[in-house]
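Hello forum,

I keep getting stuck at the same step: I have a sequence, I want structure tokens, and every attempt I make locally crashes halfway through. Rather than fight my setup again tonight, could one of you with a working pipeline run this one for me? It's a single chain of 334 residues.
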Amino acid sequence: MKLEHPHRLPEVPRKREIAPDRSEAAGPISDPLAQHRGRLDAIAADPRRLELPRREHTHQRVVEEKRGIARRERRLDRTRHPAIALGVHLRPEERAVLHDVGRFRVIDVRDLARNFYENDARHLQEDLRYLREKGLVATHWVNARRDGRRTNSKRIEVVALTRQGQKLTELAGELLPGQKIYADLVKPREAEHDTQIYRAYLKEAEKIGRAGGNNLRVELDFELKAKVHRDLYAERKAAPERDVDALRQQVADQHRLPVVEGQIQVPDARIHYELDEGSRAAFSDIEVVTAAYRPGHMRSKVQAGFRMYVSVSDRSRLAKIEDEHHILDWVMDL
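Reply #2:
Ran it on my machine without issues. Output:
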């Protein structure tokens, strides 16, 4: 049977689809540009993304925060130490300051900063303020003196214990037997020279430590002189007929002090220390030379065997009057 050629049927029109609702309720936006705009709107609406400080301000804030934390830790650190007396909590640096100031009567503030605070003058001043508030120390500005003349061009700040600070330091129980503690600034005109004694002590103590010495105790000149005068008076009273020179030599030998040209020589300070784990006792006598010294005075100190120290400025002045004996060759720099 022969098939007829098929005819195409007419296309039936489809029902027109209704476009979906693009409202927010219908679902997310499919348009990429609209999505990008939406993300930008979300970023702008987030308040946390607006708190972006400048780089330099961030660095400054971090530095200030670290300083504040350090200050808070230092304030808290004092209360962690047991109170020596009622309401007095001292940090190790403050205890060390009271100990050394008491031993030497007066110390330059700059030497305390170098020795105990690694040249951090700000922290030292904070601690001195606390010690002053507690009535333990007093600070003074004194004129520097050179060759017996007052100079207005230079003033130095020094620290001395009060009577209350003296009692507290003695009460702390950190002193070696026989160590005397002093209070008050007695001779302001001699304050600069007295602060140099402490500087000479630090130099000599370093050498003693390298030699194995420890447990250092200090006797200042007026303590030694008081003992000498007391014993001289007692010996003269007991035997008034004795030869004065022989009596003087006896007292000098008792205190292990030299006699030069009929005079007992007393150093600015005597440093007692122990060797061989305390089995041997020794001492070192130190003397601070100033521009007021004359060649004859310096020769007596050299003959006495004292360890002599001089500041750079005083050495330059003494060099102008040095005699043929070259005495300054025996003097060490501070």
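The longest strand covers residues 149-161. If your local run keeps crashing, start a new thread with the error log.
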